[in-house]
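Limitations
The structure tokens in this dataset are predictions for the assembled complex, not deposited experimental models. Users should treat interface geometry with appropriate caution, especially where small molecules or nucleic acid strands are included. An illustrative entry is reproduced here so readers can see what is and is not provided.
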Amino acid sequence: MQTLITTHNLTKRFGDFTAVDAISFEVGKGEIFGFLGANGAGKTTAMRMLTGLSHPTSGEASVAGFDVYRQPEMIKRHIGYMSQKFSLYEDLTILENLRFFGGVYGLSRRQIKEKSAALVEQLGLEEVAKKLTGSLPLGWKQKLAFSLALFHDPQIVFLDEPTGGVDPITRRQFWEMIYAAADRGVTVFVTTHYMDEAEYCDRISIMVDGKIAALDSPAGIKTKLGVQSMNDAFYQLARGAQRSE
Amino acid sequence: MKPFLAFVKKEIYHILRDRRTLLILFGMPIIQVLIFGYAVTNEFRGASIAVLDQAQDELSTDLQRHLVASGHFAIIEQVDNVSDIESAFQKGKIKMAVVIPPDFSQDFYHRKKAVVQVLSDGSDPNTASTLLNYVTNMVNQFQVRKSQAPPLPLQINIESRLVYNPELKSVYMFVPGVTALILMLVSAMMTALTLAKEKELGTMELLLVSPLHPFLIIVGKVTPYVFLALINAIFILALGVFVFGVPIKGSLLLLLGLCLLFILTALALGILISTKTDTQQAAMLTSLMMLMMPTMLLSGFIFPVESMPRLLQWISTIIPAKYFIILLKDVMLKGSGIELILWEVMVLGIMTLFFLVVSLKNFKIRLA
Amino acid sequence: MRTILLIIQKELLQVFRNKAMLPLLTVIPVVQLILLSFAASNEVKDIALSVVDHDHSSYSRLLLQKMTASGYFKLQQYADHHDQAERSLQTDEVDMVLEIPNGFERDLLRQKTADLQLLVNAINGSKGGLAGAYAAQVIQNFNQEIIADVVPMIGTLPATPRLDIQYSNWYNPTLDYKTFMVPGILGTLVTIIVMILTAMNIVREKEIGTIEQLNVTPIKKYQFILGKLLPFLFIGLFDLAIGLVAGKLIFDIPMVGSLGLVFAFCVVNLIVVLGIGLLISTMADTQQQAMFVAWFFMMIFILMSGLFTPIESMPKWAQYFTYPNPIAHFVEVMRRVLLKGSTFADIQWQFAVMTVLAITFSSLAMLTYRKTT
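Predicted assembly:
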């Protein structure tokens, strides 16, 4: 299997505070990699380093074959990103957002047009395609943000708590979309707080105090810790955390 | 009373903890006063002029020397023709040009009449008027000296006295203005902003469910700002007096009393604005548009109200800062006592009451 | 190139979609231009005069008539005695007191000299100075006339040489104060609007979180900065254009010089301002902060721009502070080119300074904006 993300002792310090402490892991092509941890465990910081938003303090990492120190801009060409906070332009319409971000990633006008039409149809957004994004309900916004992260056919997509605050039905649909993307060979790197979602991942890592406390398939982790559910596994690992909120 | 005091204390903590805002609150007035005191001035200093001397004789050289000796002018350029003057105007090098005709001394001594031509840059009208006035005086003096005639009979001597500000210092104007502006900023704008912030953060709800009367809560919130503003006022006045030599001719106590009155007016305005706005952004914009701009432009701070068109003069009568600036000038510079300023004090008092009543009313409507 | 166009398109869409913003960019600048031009007047006219006439002679009446006829003064009060007049001066009822002593006419005719007393409220130094000067001018003219009238009656004098002044005010013959103020105010307004808009722009994207989404895209820094600069440059130029039209139509401002030159300078000026605005925006964390900082700088820029008070009146050290002040240069250039017809050669220096500033601030903005922290 082709490896798309590699990290080795990747570390980020803010002054005296070590947010991410020497983490090492690999993620393969088409894999759904779950990134778990309590609030403040360092998930988002780790993800920001991998997406080229933040410089690591030490350690090594490469994403899609590019080095995070030397080629962050090359990485950005090959990844999609969906942040915790809805960050499409609410004062632009759905189509305008697609046109803007598609163009920024260098898609041609024709590609944008065709892909937009397909996307709008697939999500059933025909009625609202020309409405301001801000007027959509949250669930739709999240699906739109995810589709946009995949719009330029990246090799990897990073999702930072993509399903925060949405209802169970929408969450279900959202995971169907994730699976569909993984089937097309897209690597999915996702952080979440929902343990049922963790079960959907091929492999998960659980971060505690900036370190990776466990890294395996969901079943593997449960067996190793001798617990019945992911909830128990998480609780057992995160209990000893120093800096959870 | 005790819950009320606890409340005031909490507000003081808020203020003291926000270092950046504190820095702005105290740094801004100081910088403003310094800028106004040192840099922003209408005081006239030597202007650069050009001379086109077509005579090149003893008398014309004398006249030039006489002009320079006055200290009002610095001749920076001797030009050869009128088009050079034009170009010097366009380059912004000179403000005025003096043209001395050929046969200057011939005209003066033999024909008994010579004409000096003065060209000024009218694009800056006040400078042009002032310069023309200076040059007229200088030329008249020169004439008297050179003609060696007994002084003309029937002379009217003008004994002119510039009262209240004999040295024509700009800072006399600006200290009262800056005081008004800063008190407006601290009292009205900051009050409106803090109240809006509580609303935005939702903490206002929390306070409103407390057993204190809602209006008392507002009063508690703004009380610390009274002190803050008063300290600021004392700061500015002290800078004016000790650094720039602005006098305080009237009673200091009266002066501080007036500052307090204006602070109350401004606070009332701030409360009024906050009852009408829900976000900090809106409070900020409203304060800037409705308070700061009029205070700067229509209060007589920088521009004399009398020179404005009627409509603006009418508008200026509802600007509280206008009255405060008049009061400050009267007490500081003219030494007026309370009996001379009753009218302005009354106007401010009535305005304050009016703002409070309206905001109380708005407040009740909101609660209901 | 395409990326830059995309950003420009996006910014413009956002600006024009914002209902609160549109009037702020179109109508309000014009209203402000009009209002400010009327309000910001240092013109001295209608000086309220109190007269204490102890003489009640034909000369004293003639003098008063001359004073009011000059157009500078309005007779506010006939005071019976000095104290009353001085009290009016104190309560701001009048700006100036003219006291004509008893025997003014008699002294003039007999003793050949007479005294007049003038009290001027000089709290507003420039106004007081001008008022005193105007009064002196009127009195001097009056004096000349009397001499011309009386001298022939008492016999001829030995002819003494006279030196007369013939004056003319170029560029603004009637010394209209608005002609002076409108170009400067317009320049200042355009600068302020653009500065506020840009200062709030990037920080707004920070606050709502969209900047993250942009930062993970392969947009290059220069594309991002240019894409942000250009829309506001257009808006600034558009505001300048409507301001100039309003200035022409409403105030009949002369436009002697080349408008192309004005616009060219405006472009350089706006690049400086945009650089400063973007710099503030990338450094600030909240819109509130950006607003405070922008306001603070603008206040200093405006006060020390020469818009209201001449730069030449400042002390030398303060004059150096006007070099990096875009508003100071823009006000100066607007006035010179529009009113006096200065050409490129006349304002080279301003162009040079602004170009240096433009390069400095946009590189600083480019450097401080980081896609990766």
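Some entries come with short summary sentences. For this one: The radius of gyration of chain A is 18 Å.
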